[in-house]
Specification:
The protein has 89 residues and is mainly alpha-helical. The chain has a domain at 37-88. Helices cover 53% and strands 7% of the residues.
């Protein structure tokens, strides 16, 4: 059931909202929950482009600190373009 709140916005009934949160929180079939960034990079490494592999190697060598810099700093340290870093995000 949907209700209109004080501010005019729509609110979902508590039961439906809780069911939606639970459904969205469940891992999909064959999907592990709580993968680290390093695990995700390693899992997809073979399918990455040359520039993405170069970025992945730099990130893994300095993990987890390397992912905390700005997109520009990360791209410069890996020797790749900022769009490459954005694609990996």
């Amino acid at each position: 059931m949907t209700k209109t709140g004080k501010g005019g916005g729509r609110k979902t009934a508590p039961g439906k909202a809780a069911a939606r949160r639970e459904r969205n929180a469940r891992p999909r079939e064959g999907q592990r929950q709580h993968l680290t960034v390093a695990e995700r990079i390693r899992g997809h490494f073979e399918s990455l482009t040359r520039a993405e592999r170069q970025l992945a190697n730099t990130m893994l060598a300095n993990y987890p600190v390397s992912g905390l810099g700005s997109i520009t700093a990360v791209s410069e340290s890996a020797g790749v373009s900022t769009p490459t870093v954005a694609r990996m995000a």
